[in-house]
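Box 3.1 A note on notation
Throughout this textbook, protein chains are presented in two layers. The first layer is the amino acid sequence; the second is a token string describing backbone geometry. Keep the layers aligned when reading.
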Amino acid sequence: MTYLKVNVDAPIQLISAGEFVSEVPWKHMSRSIENFELILGVQETVYIREEEEDFEVGEGDILLLYPGCTHRGYRESLPGVKFYWFHFDVPATPNVLSSEEMKQETSAMDGLVQRHGVIRDIYLPQSVQADNGDRIHIIVNQILHVANSHYLTYHSANYLFTSLLIEISELALSRLISNPVHSQGNVSMNKIIEWTRIHAGEPLTVTDLAQKFNYNKDYISRLFMQNTGMRPLEFIHSIRINKAKELISRTDMSIKQVAEEAGYTDEKYFMRLFKKRVHMTPSQYRNAYHKTFMNNV
């Protein structure tokens, strides 16, 4: 595994971006490019070889391809394969770290975990699975809309794209840095938060959470406030609304279908809650970021 280390005091330059989809069996062409390419899998699997190393990019997988290398498909993807792609340049000579060098970097970061915002670089792994896919998909759709809307502001898409790279870097770093200040209680709370996130689309109450983890309701409410800044139901709604935003921007589902998929049986209640939290209706949100460049070759 390699990691691309990039300073982000200035935004990263996005060259082009789009959405690839093929309704027939497809295999990536053989080519070599002069810039970096980031690929985010959406449906089915893309099979890409960089030089002599093979990668499979499925739903939620993120792959970074390096410039000057030969890239080619080594196996056909099934019909319906879909992924997002981004070509970008970095402002200086690429600094590529090996896994061992990355361990040394993260070891130095361990003492900084309580000081937010002190790291000025991002670290992009060559491949990673996104467990915060909803948030990443929302950023991706904003990038694609802005990149293909001919904004007058020069860095409009670059800033959004840099925020996507920061999101990926934070994801990778969170898996590499061992936070020494985590108590056993915090580890347990992380488990509660993750369980809540996974089950947020189901009928879920504070009583359900308390019974699941053998806490009383007041105590589990305090835990959520201390660790998320939100009470349990607020946290559940935030997960559901983020899921709804991702579905609205990525699919053609009706608003009723989106509401049900996000965990709301009452469409009108969902629409009121969405507008309260997002400050626009679901339809307005869909129309706000609808432009994208699509290709199938």
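The radius of gyration is 21 Å. Residues 179-185 have pLDDT under 50 and may be disordered.
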